[in-house]
Write a structure and sequence with these properties.
The chain is built from 8 helices and no strands. It is elongated and about 75 Å long. Helix content is 70%, strand content 0%. By secondary structure, it is mainly alpha-helical.
C-alpha cells in the first residue's frame, strides 16, 4: 500500500522495496539470534510473498532452514549432524563477525559436549536393558532425554521399564529444552535457547 502511495515513481518504489527488504532480512537475523526460528521462517515467507530481498532472501531462507534442521537433529540426539548443519548455516552468513555466527559457534560447542555426555549413557542403557535393571533404565533414560528430548532408544526403553516395575508410564514427557526462564526451546537443556 505504501508503495502505491508513492504515486508510481519507479525510483521511489524501488528504494522503498529495497528498504523493506533490508529491514525484513535484518529482522530475520535478529529473530535467529534470539532463537525464534518459527518467527524467522514467517518473516522469510512474508518477504517471499511480497517478492522482496531476491538472492539475499534466498540465502537467509536457507540459513533458517539449516538452523531448523539442526534443531530437529539435536532433538533426537543427532548432535554431530546438527553441528554439521549449523556449520553450513554459518558459512552462508554474510559476515563471520555477525553476532549470529558467534551464537552458532557457541551452540556447536554445546552440541558436541552433549554428544560426549550421551555416548556413555547409551552403553549404560544397553547394559541396563540387557540385565533388566529397570530402575537404572529409568534413571539413564531421564538423563538421555535431558540431553535429547526425543532420543529414540530412550523413548522406546522408558515404557518397557515402567511396565516392568509395575507402574503406568507417566503422561508424555515434556523435556526441559532450555533454562527454566526460557521454556520451551528447540534444543535440549544446556544446548541452546533457540526457540521453535
Amino acid at each position: 500500500q505504501q508503495a502505491q502511495q508513492l504515486d508510481g515513481s519507479a525510483e521511489l518504489v524501488d528504494k522503498f522495496r529495497e528498504e523493506q527488504a533490508r529491514l525484513g532480512l535484518e529482522q530475520t537475523r535478529r529473530l535467529l539470534e534470539r532463537g525464534e526460528t518459527a518467527l524467522a521462517q514467517r518473516q522469510i515467507a512474508k518477504l517471499e510473498q511480497r517478492r522482496l530481498g531476491g538472492d539475499e532472501r534466498r540465502r537467509w531462507k536457507l540459513i533458517v532452514h539449516l538452523i531448523t534442521q539442526a534443531r530437529e537433529r539435536a532433538y533426537v540426539g543427532e548432535f554431530v549432524e546438527a553441528c554439521e548443519l549449523l556449520d553450513r548455516a554459518s558459512r552462508l552468513l554474510p559476515s563471520n563477525v555477525d553476532p549470529l555466527a558467534e551464537e552458532i559457534a557457541s551452540r556447536q560447542r554445546k552440541l558436541l559436549a552433549n554428544n560426549e555426555k550421551l555416548r556413555p549413557l547409551v552403553t549404560t542403557l544397553h547394559a541396563a536393558v540387557a540385565s533388566e535393571s529397570w530402575s537404572e533404565v529409568l534413571t539413564t533414560t531421564d538423563a538421555m532425554l535431558e540431553l535429547a528430548a526425543a532420543y529414540p532408544p530412550a523413548v522406546e526403553a522408558r515404557p518397557k521399564a515402567w511396565q516392568a516395575v509395575g507402574m503406568k508410564a507417566p503422561a508424555k514427557r515434556i523435556a526441559n529444552f532450555a533454562p527454566a526462564a526460557r521454556r520451551p526451546g528447540p534444543f535440549p537443556a544446556g544446548v541452546s535457547r533457540w526457540r521453535g
